[in-house]
Specification:
Elements: H1 3-10, E1 25-29, E2 32-35, E3 40-43, H2 46-49, H3 58-69, H4 82-95, E4 101-105, H5 108-123, E5 127-131, H6 140-144, E6 160-164, H7 179-197, E7 204-207, H8 223-234, E8 237-241, E9 266-269, E10 280-284, H9 286-289, H10 304-319, H11 322-343, E11 347-353, E12 356-361, H12 371-383, E13 386-387, E14 389-391, E15 397-400, H13 408-427
Bound molecules: 4'-deoxy-4'-aminopyridoxal-5'-phosphate.
Length: about 425
């Protein structure tokens, strides 16, 4: 039986596979992967922004192998774990949150569930503010704060959530406004949402500095700082979901939220930290982190294997100044794409920061989403040896997020493939 048929027989229908003829990736090195048929691709989606350094990175492999050689992959948090403590110290220091504490999980979902648990217990309130077009995970709490029908499998929720405007500017009712007026309109909306849909004592607001699943959408810099001023009037905590935007990927900052001039009360992270090892977590104000009065444990959280790998990833990011690389290569990507957009009106919007760039496909001449064009670009880039992501509220956005080690030559190669794919999508043949 073909692998695709075996997959369909035993795995759920709701795990989406890319491509009419899905790919099995069997080998990787640098930014390139090879499929089971021997075809090579430049990878500009990096395991959904998770292979932050790319494939076959010696420093990470060596750190993991050294831990394996001790015979210990897991002990549990019942015992002291040196790698966990060292990683927590590093993240606490990087967070900018005074005297921060860190809790490790195995995924972004679990990180956000933890942040919700902390904030709602700290504030003794089940009310949460989230952004329209958000994605924060797949469990009950996190689906409850996900503002995207395509990812909302259930309406059942342990939190009472109110959604606020601002994260998705291209399709916002305020999209025609200047940056300043846009921020003013969103702040007014936030005030009105608090007044009309809550009892005032809201626990927290959670934001993605750049909405990932939502199609790499972002507000003007400063919006979340302006929101924070309103939140402070009510004692509402701010959580920044850095699952996609952390570790320097946005180029100009180490954490995405720094573009907004505010230090949040909590940040959540996962994906890129482990370069493929399953690790996530929360970094938070100490009083918030310590507010739980019952035991809480994540059995695999903070395990010595994932935490030693993650330490090696963070060291690599700094040793190679990957944040500066993300800024430089990201600028090359966005400039190249904007030039392509001028030639092909099927491209409605090019946006993003650093190595997180979205290309929204539309019916030429307007803003009507073109799902067909995005599907075509996905297939055509694959045919040209380039892996990209697809998403957005209307499933019409191509998402580009290569490993942060990407080179100028690879960027130009990708831009060439993208131009060919976009041309094919525009011609519709
Ligand atoms: N938050 C954001 C911003 C994400 O993009 C994701 C995953 N796409 C999650 C949380 C959930 O992470 P995970 O899939 O590791 O549970």
């Amino acid at each position: 039986m073909a692998l695709i048929d075996r997959h369909r027989a035993v795995l759920p229908n709701w795990i989406a596979l890319y491509y009419a003829d899905p790919i099995e990736i069997v080998h990787g090195h640098g930014r390139r992967v090879t499929d089971a048929n021997g075809k090579s691709y430049l990878d500009f989606f990096a395991g959904i922004l998770t292979n932050a350094l790319g494939y076959d990175v010696a420093e990470v492999g060596d750190a993991v192998r050294k831990q394996l050689d001790t015979g210990i992959m897991h002990t549990s948090t019942l015992y002291l774990i040196r790698n966990q403590i060292e990683l927590a110290e590093r993240i606490a220091e990087l967070s900018g949150i005074p005297d921060a504490k860190v809790f490790f999980t195995n995924s972004g979902t679990e990180a956000n569930e933890t942040a919700l648990m902390l904030a709602t217990q700290f504030r003794r309130s089940n009310q949460v503010l989230a952004m329209r077009n958000s994605y924060h995970g797949r469990a009950f709490g996190t689906v409850g704060i996900t503002g995207n029908r395509g990812w909302s499998a259930s309406s059942l929720s342990p939190v009472k959530v109110s959604y606020v405007h601002g994260g998705y500017r291209y399709r916002s009712p305020f999209s025609a406004l200047s940056d300043v007026d846009y921020i003013r309109a969103c702040v007014e909306d936030l005030r009105e949402v608090i007044q009309t849909t809550t009892s005032g004592d809201v626990a927290c607001m959670i934001v993605e500095p750049i909405q990932g699943v939502g199609g790499f959408t972002l507000p003007p810099d400063g919006l979340y700082g302006a929101f924070a001023d309103v939140l402070a009037e009510h004692g509402i905590l701010l959580i920044s979901d850095e699952v996609q935007t952390g570790w320097g990927r946005t180029g100009e900052h180490f954490w995405g939220i720094q573009a907004h001039g505010v230090v949040p009360d909590l940040m959540t992270f996962a994906k890129g930290l482990g370069n493929g090892l399953a690790i996530g977590g929360v970094v938070a104000r100490p009083d918030v982190m310590d507010c739980l009065t019952a035991n809480s444990i994540s059995t695999f959280g903070g395990n010595p294997l994932a935490t030693v790998g993650a330490r090696a990833v963070i060291d690599y990011v700094f040793d190679h100044d990957l944040q500066a690389g993300a800024a430089k290569l990201g600028a090359r990507l966005i400039t190249g794409l904007r030039a392509i957009a001028e030639r092909y009106p099927v491209v409605g919007d090019v946006r993003g920061k650093g190595l997180m760039v979205g290309v929204e496909l539309v019916e030429p001449g307007g803003r009507t989403p073109s799902v067909a064009a995005a599907a075509r670009v996905l297939e055509e880039t694959r045919a040209r040896g380039l892996l990209v992501g697809k998403g957005g509220l209307h499933n019409n956005v191509i998402r580009l997020a290569p490993p942060m080690t990407v080179t100028e030559d690879e960027m130009d190669e990708a831009l060439g493939a993208l131009e060919g794919a976009i041309a094919a999508a525009q011609e519709g043949k």
